[in-house]
Fold:
Amino acid sequence: MPILIDMNKDAWLKAVLHAHSSNSDGWLSPCEVIRFYKAAGYDIVSITDHNKLTPMKDEEAIFLPGIEIDVKSRVSESIYHIVLTGLEEEPGDNVRRDPQRLIDWGVDRGLFVTVAHPYWSMLSTEDLDSLEQYHAIEVYNTVSEMEVSRGRSDVYWDYLLNREVFVWGTAVDDAHYYVFDALGGWVMVNVEEKNAEAVLEALKKGRFYSSMGPEIRYFAVEENKIEIEARPLLVLRILSYDSRGYYFNMRFLDKLKELKGTKHVIDFEEYSENGAKIMRMALRRNVTVEVRITEPWIRIKLEGSFPFKRYVRAEVVDENGLSAWTNPVKL
Structure:
């Protein structure tokens, strides 16, 4: 069983991958940005000022220099915002004028390349289809949500995955003011060593999950089984190719128990084991769901004949509507 997330494996570090300082249009100085995130418990800080590199050195946080460059689409009037993470020098003017040349420049130098806030930018699917090689899109952007209610780009992500454009999804702040636009989206990165090089390599390989609040401490996938453990967890969404997916809501449990012995719920059992409360139900369509509650963690195991194809990814949602996303797994 491929285990994608295991919080007991190596180190997991909290990262902000998109933030602005007074070197462009942010309200805090670069040093203040780093202090702000360190005080909030972040291990990794990337300042990505508009169209200019902000180099910094810091002894207490892992600093990843970055830049956000806006460049016109080849196929429409849209403007891409491309975030390059881990660079040591700025790209030249000839590179900045073309989005694909900019992405290629970053990939050739081993950088982590992200298309920022597709929904805020009102990119078309043709805009995203016209680009190649970038590593990720921002699935959530805090300032885009706080300012214009266009922070979530989940649909773009699944569109790309359905087109077999296999990219990761990041949650970021894109903070400018450090009031309501900060501490709303981050990534948890799995590294073998606590240094910038290891973080950059983990990002490129997708060894992270993204969150607005919920924590994921275990996620594993195989052909007929998916298992995830998180807190807090109200809703579990599994998404796959085309219209394939699965949905489970913890509020369903009482109703499912009532339906035991019907065509909807063939069986339902409830018991305790080693301090955990366990509910196991056999549902129609040959799917078994096991819910194991060990406060405050909830582990859900799905077993059966799923219609999933090409890829699968999971989203955990808490009672406040805040999400955490795993990266997609190829099937």
In short: The chain has two domains: 8-210, 216-330. Residues 216-330 form one domain.
